[in-house]
Amino acid sequence: MFKFLKGVVGGSGTGLKDLPYNIGEPYSTAWGSWVHYRGSFKDDGAPVSIFALTRSNANDGHLAAGRTGVKRLRTVRHPNILSFLYSTEAETFDGSTTKVTIYIVMNLDHRSF
């Protein structure tokens, strides 16, 4: 069993322990299967948005769509809204179930909200 998977699509990270961001409390709203968390840079505390998609089956269609979405986010840029910073995929074991989570970190321009 893997403790941490490589970053999504060649990934920009090596797992949660090396994530250069702090994951905070989730926002009360969600977008589909994704959970939106408050986050910050570990170095300077600047705010970021962290999105997480968790599934119990590594071959789940939602995870496949999430991986494809990460590929696209790396190339798409939209001024003054969101910009892709980082992604990683982690596998965790919580007693009897193994869960796979994709994390996407976005730089959020708060002026747009």
UniProtKB/TrEMBL annotation:
Gene3D superfamilies per record: Phosphorylase Kinase, domain 1
InterPro entries according to UniProt: CIK-Related_Protein
Cited PANTHER family: N-TERMINAL KINASE-LIKE PROTEIN, SCY1-RELATED S/T PROTEIN KINASE-LIKE
Protein name, per record: Protein kinase domain-containing protein
